[in-house]
Amino acid sequence: MRPRNVVLIGFMGAGKTVVGRALATHLDFRLFDTDAMVVEEAGMEIPEIWATEGEPGFRAREEKVVLRACAGSGHVIACGGGAILSMKNYGVLKGAGPIVYLRAPADVLRARVDIGGEGRPLLPDDAAFGRLLVERVPIYESAADLTIDADAGTPEQLASLIEQRVSDLPERPDRTIRL
Ligand code: S3P
Residue 175: what pLDDT? Predict the structure, then answer.
């Protein structure tokens, strides 16, 4: 069964955007990248949003775009690494389609993200990286319907694997309560 949408979650540097782009091509879906949507809507880059509105401002914008990204079908939704942490986003994303966790070992992530760089307000140093990873991994694991090793192949190969594996997932029962 083809899913209605596919949601990609995972830590910063896992490759959600790149794999999401390849997956959207494979499925002939449209890519919704929540970070890109926030930046476009705010007219500011992420560090600027963080500096002017703080993390609460960024998260409020993220919740708005997650709602937009999940409306309709035929979407690959590449989430910013913290999007799934909000209970509101969690419910919306869970309802949108299967959640795929792009898992990567710490050393792979560490090499991909610019720790201490201007673009990474949440990662001022290696200790922050470690703390956040330990805090987040169980959340990604429990939210996921499917886990894919992000370092197991090229974005193209990962996209093929995800396409195949999401089609094998049982359809989620409709839990809507009708009065
Ligand atoms: C964040 C991850 C970033 C971006 C923001 C916060 C997070 O997205 O949304 O800097 O809380 O993990 P990527 O995971 O796409 O880098």
Answer: 61
